[in-house]
Design a protein that fits this description.
By secondary structure, this protein is an alpha+beta fold. Helices cover about 15% and strands about 30% of the residues. Strand 9 and strand 10 form a beta hairpin. The longest helix is centred in the C-terminal third of the chain and has 16 residues. The relative contact order is 0.12.
C-alpha cells in the first residue's frame, strides 16, 4: 500500500481516481480524474486517492455561506473584498449599480462602495481558479435581507471560524442565551466576523462572554455557565426558536 506525501502549491494539478477536500474548497476537478489544488499544504496520496491538509487554517468558503467582508480594492467591473480566506472575494458591480446597464467607463465605483466599507454578502460561486464570487441577493433562506449590503454603525469582533459552533451553540442555544440579555442587532458571519449594533455597554458584555466561550471552548457545562453569568435560565432560553447565521 504505497503512500506519498508532498508539498503542493495553489494551481498544481494531480491525476487521481478520488479525492477528499473538494467540499472544503481545497481541491477542484478540472477534467476526468484531474484535479487542481487551491491551497499551499501537504498532499497525502495513497492508492490514487488524495487528501490535502492546508498549512494555514483560514476560512474555507462554501456556496451559500453568509460572510462579512471589507472592500480593499476596485476591479474594472466590481469590488475586491477581504473575507479572511485563501484569496480575496469579488462583488460584481451589477449587484450594487442598478441604474441601467453597467458601463465601467461612465460609472465611478467609489460613489457606491468605498475602501474599508463593511459588506454582508453570500457566496454565490467559486471556480477552479479559486475566485470567490459574492452576491447581495437572498439566495439562501434564513438570511436577513437587512444584513446584505453595506453595514454601518456596528461594533466588530473577529473570531476563529473553529469557535463559531460553540459560540452559536446546539440549535442556536448559546446565541439565544446571549440575546436574552443583550438587546440590539447581532450578526454572526460564517467567516468569523461578528457584528453588533446597540449600546456600547452591551457590546462590552458581549466581548466578555465571547472571550469566555473562546477560552473554554471544550469545557463541559459551558452553556449553563454563560446562562448563569447573564442571569438567564436555560429553560427560558429553550423556549426560543432557531437562530440563523446572518439572520
Amino acid at each position: 500500500m504505497s503512500k506519498t506525501e508532498k508539498i503542493v502549491v495553489p494551481g498544481e494539478t494531480i491525476k487521481v481516481y478520488s479525492q477528499r477536500g473538494k467540499e472544503e474548497g481545497f481541491i477542484f476537478r478540472i477534467g476526468k480524474g484531474n484535479y487542481v489544488f487551491t491551497h499551499l499544504g501537504v498532499a497525502h496520496i495513497q492508492n490514487k486517492k488524495v487528501d490535502l491538509i492546508p498549512y494555514k487554517n483560514v476560512y474555507i468558503p462554501k456556496i451559500g455561506d453568509y460572510v462579512i467582508g471589507f472592500v480593499v480594492s476596485y476591479a474594472p467591473n466590481g469590488w475586491i473584498l477581504e473575507i479572511g480566506s485563501y484569496t480575496k472575494a469579488f462583488l460584481p458591480a451589477n449587484e450594487v449599480v442598478k441604474e441601467g446597464k453597467f458601463d465601467p467607463k461612465k460609472v465611478e465605483l467609489g460613489k457606491y462602495l468605498k475602501l474599508g466599507d463593511a459588506l454582508g454578502a453570500l457566496i454565490l460561486d467559486m471556480n477552479r481558479f479559486s475566485n470567490i464570487i459574492l452576491t447581495l441577493k437572498p439566495i439562501k433562506e434564513g438570511v436577513n435581507p437587512r444584513h446584505l449590503g453595506r453595514l454601518t454603525g456596528y461594533y466588530m469582533i473577529k473570531v476563529h471560524t473553529t469557535k463559531l459552533p460553540r459560540i452559536i451553540g446546539k440549535k442556536g442555544s448559546m446565541v439565544k442565551i446571549i440575546k436574552k440579555k443583550i438587546d440590539g442587532d447581532l450578526i454572526i458571519a460564517q467567516n468569523g466576523v461578528i457584528m453588533y449594533k446597540g449600546e456600547y455597554e452591551n457590546f462590552l458584555i458581549l466581548k466578555r462572554i465571547l472571550n469566555i466561550i473562546i477560552q473554554y471552548t471544550y469545557a463541559s457545562g459551558l452553556t449553563g455557565r454563560i446562562a448563569e453569568l447573564l442571569g438567564v435560565s436555560i429553560s427560558e432560553e429553550n423556549q426560543g426558536g432557531e437562530v440563523n447565521k446572518g439572520g
